[in-house]
Specification:
The structure is a homodimer of 328-residue chains. Chain A has 328 residues and is of the alpha/beta class. The first copy, chain A, is 30% helix and 28% strand. Chain A starts with a strand and ends in a 5-residue tail after the last strand. Chains A, B: This is NAD(P)H-quinone oxidoreductase.
C-alpha cells in the first residue's frame, strides 16, 4: 500500500511516499481501508523530529474509512464506515485501529467530513470537559478560535454547556466564522489586548476556563484572564514552548489548575474511554446536524507536505483533509 | 478581648497585641471561646505584607475552643468543643466561625491537639484527594515531609489509600519521624538528588502525584519526578516563587496536571464542602486514633512572633500551637 513516512535525514522534504505492506490488525483491532485522513500539528512536530508520537513510521493520527477486516471483535463488521484516532499510520491506504476507538460515521457524512472529526473534536471534548470540567453557563476563552480544535470547541461549549464563548483569532474573516459557530465575544489579537477584553466581558472576573494553544507568548495575559479557581488547559505552543519567569505565587493565590496536554501520546485505554464518552455526549448532536465538522481544504494524500505547510502558515479555518485516491 | 494584629508600619515587630471588641457571630456563625490556635505560613506572609488572606485585621486561620454562642444555627450548642478554619481572627480570645465549617473535637483530644488539625489536615486532604485525585495504591512524593501538612499528608496517603509514600526532608531526625508516620521512601534532600531517588523507587516511572511546598528551586526535578499523566500540586514556595524557565512542551508531552493552591483565600462555600468531606472521610480515623495530629511545640499566644520565627527557621516537626491563657 502507499503510505507517507518521515525521513528525518532529508533537509528538503522529510515526507517520503513509500510502498509498505498492508498492516495486520492484532486482536481487538480493525483493518480500515482509509478514504480520508487529516493533518495535525502533532504530525508536523513528528516530521520535524520535535516529538515522536508513535512508534509507527507512518504519519497521521486520525482516519475515516471502511472496515476491511475485524480481528477478534464483534463491535464492527467489514463494510462499516468508521472514523477514529490511530496510533500513527493515518497517512496511508490502510490503517489499523483498536475497535474500541472506532466511531460509526453518521450516514450523511462524506469520508472527508468524517476525517475532520476525531482529533479536534475528541481534543476539544477532552480539554473542555475531562480536563477543563466546564460547567453549564460558565465562560471559556478559546484561543485560535478558527483552528480545527477551536471550531470544534466553540460548538461544544455552546451546544453542550450554553457557555459564554470568548475567542481570539487573527483576522476579521476568522472571527466572523467563529461568530457563525456561536462565539459570543470576538477578539482580534492583532489589534486588541485580549486580557483587557476578557476582563471587560466578564465583569472583571476573568473566565472559568482557558483553552490555550499559544503557550509562552500569552502566559501573562492568560494568567490575567483566568478567574480565581479557574482552569487553564495548555494544548499548544504556537507562541513558544518556554515561558520565562513564571510567578507561582500568582498561580497559587488565584488557585489555578493548569493542565498541559497532548492527546496523541495518551494510552490506548485512555483514548478508548474518551471515545466512549464522546460518542455518548457528542455524536447524537452530530447525527442531528447541530454540531458539524469544519473543513478548510482537501489535498490529495500525495500532497501531504503542501497540506502541512498550509497549516504552518495559519491559513486554515477548520480542518485540512488528506484524500486517499480510490483504490483499484 | 486580647488579639494579635498586624502593623505593617513596624520594622521591628509587626505583630501587635491589642484589646479589641469581642466579635459578633452573623447568622449561621458560631462565637468560639478560643483555647488554642496554630501558626501557618500564610500568617507569616500576611504579617510581611506579601499576601492578605482576609479582611480580618487579626491573624490566624484555625482555632480550637468552646462554642459560646450560636446564631441562627442548630448544628452546635453552647459548650460544644469544636475546631475549624476561620477567615482570619484565630490569634485571639474569641473568634467567629461559620457553623458549617466547625468540626466536633474528638473526646480524648486536648485543645492544643485539636488546633493542630484543621489547616494541615484539610490542606493535605484537599491536595491529595480533591486536587490530586490520589487513587488506591498510587505513589506520592511529599516534600517537607516533617512539616505540618507533610506529617498530615503522610498519614492520610497511607491510611486512606495505601499509597507508596516518598518523602523529602532535611535531617535524619525528620526522616525518622516520617518513617514512624508510615513513609516508605526517605530522601535527605541535602545529601541526595531527590529525582534520581524517586525514579529508582518507582521503576523509572515517576510518581502519580507530587505535593510541592518548594516551588522554583525544585521545578526541574519535580518535572523529572512526575509520572506521565501525573498530578503536581504546588502548595508552597519555600524555595522561591519565580521559576526562571518553564518548558511547556515537556509538561504537554508528560500530560501533567499542575494545580497551584492556597487554602486560605478559598470561598466560604468551598471550605464548607471541604470540611464536610473531611469529616466523613478522615474524622472516623482520628476518633479511633489511627491518624493523629502532630504537635511540635506550644507557645503562649503572647509569643506569637517567636512561634512564627520557629517556623521560619524550619525547626518544627509538625504543628506550632498558640495556647490562649485561661480566661477569668
Amino acid at each position: 500500500m502507499k503510505a507517507i513516512t518521515v525521513n528525518l535525514q532529508s533537509t528538503s522534504n522529510r515526507l517520503q511516499p513509500q510502498t509498505l505492506p498492508t498492516p495486520e490488525p492484532a486482536a481487538g483491532e480493525l483493518l480500515i481501508q482509509v478514504h480520508a485522513a487529516a493533518v495535525n500539528r502533532t504530525d508536523i512536530m513528528t516530521r520535524d523530529g520535535l516529538s515522536g508520537y508513535a512508534t509507527n513510521p507512518i504519519l497521521g493520527v486520525e482516519i475515516a474509512g471502511v472496515v476491511e477486516k475485524a480481528n477478534g471483535t464483534s463491535r464492527f463488521s467489514p463494510g462499516d464506515r468508521v472514523m477514529g484516532l490511530v496510533n500513527g499510520g493515518g497517512y496511508a491506504e490502510y490503517a489499523v485501529i483498536p475497535a474500541d476507538r472506532a466511531i460509526p460515521i453518521p450516514e450523511d457524512y462524506s469520508f472527508e467530513q468524517a476525517a475532520a472529526v476525531p482529533e479536534v473534536f475528541l481534543t476539544a471534548y477532552q480539554t473542555l470537559y475531562w480536563l477543563g470540567r466546564l460547567q453549564p453557563n460558565e465562560s471559556v476563552l478559546i484561543h485560535a478560535g478558527a483552528s480545527g480544535v477551536g471550531t470544534a470547541a466553540i460548538q461544544l461549549a455552546k451546544k453542550l454547556s450554553g457557555a459564554q464563548v470568548i475567542v481570539t483569532a487573527g483576522s476579521a474573516e476568522k472571527l466572523d466564522f467563529c461568530r457563525e459557530l456561536g462565539a459570543d465575544v470576538l477578539i482580534d489579537y492583532k489589534k486588541q489586548s485580549f486580557d483587557q477584553e476578557v476582563l471587560q466581558a466578564t465583569n472583571g472576573q476573568g473566565v472559568d476556563l482557558i483553552l490555550d494553544f499559544v503557550g509562552a507568548d500569552y502566559w501573562d495575559k492568560n494568567l490575567a484572564s483566568v478567574k480565581k479557581e479557574g482552569r487553564w488547559v495548555v494544548i499548544g505552543i504556537l507562541g513558544g514552548g518556554e515561558v520565562e519567569k513564571v510567578n507561582l505565587l500568582a498561580l497559587m493565590t488565584k488557585c489555578v489548575q493548569l493542565t498541559a496536554t497532548v492527546l496523541a501520546p495518551r494510552s490506548n485505554e485512555y483514548k478508548a474511554r474518551l471515545t466512549a464518552d464522546f460518542v455518548r455526549d457528542v455524536m447524537p448532536h452530530m447525527e442531528q446536524g447541530e454540531i458539524k465538522p469544519i473543513i478548510d481544504i482537501v489535498f490529495p494524500l500525495e500532497q501531504a507536505l503542501e497540506a502541512q505547510q498550509h497549516m504552518e502558515e495559519n491559513r486554515n479555518i477548520g480542518k485540512i483533509i488528506l484524500k486517499v485516491a480510490e483504490q483499484e
